[in-house]
Amino acid sequence: MHCVEEIKNGIYWMGCNDFRTEIFERIFPIPEGVTYNSYFIDDEMTCVVDAMDKSCRDEFIEDVEYLLKGRKLDYFILQHMEPDHASSAVALLEKHPEAKIVAQAQTFKLFEQFFRKPMPSRYVEVKEGDQLKLGKHVLTFVKAPMVHWPEVIMSYDITDKVLFSADAFGMFGTVGNVYADQVDFEENYLDSARRYYVNIVGKFGPQVVKVLQKAAGIPIEVICPLHGVVFRTPETIQYIIEKYLHWAKYVPEKKGVVIAFSSIYGNTERAACVLAHKLSMLGIRDVRLYDVAKIHPSYVTAKAWEYSHLVLAAPTYNLNLFLPMENFLHDLKTLMFQNRKIAVIGNHSWASAAYNTMVDYVQNRFKNCELLEPTLDMKSSLRDDQEGIIDEIAKAVADDIKAYPEPKSLL
Ligand code: FEO
Question: How far apart are the CA of 179 and the centre of ligand 1, in A?
Answer without folding.
Answer: 20
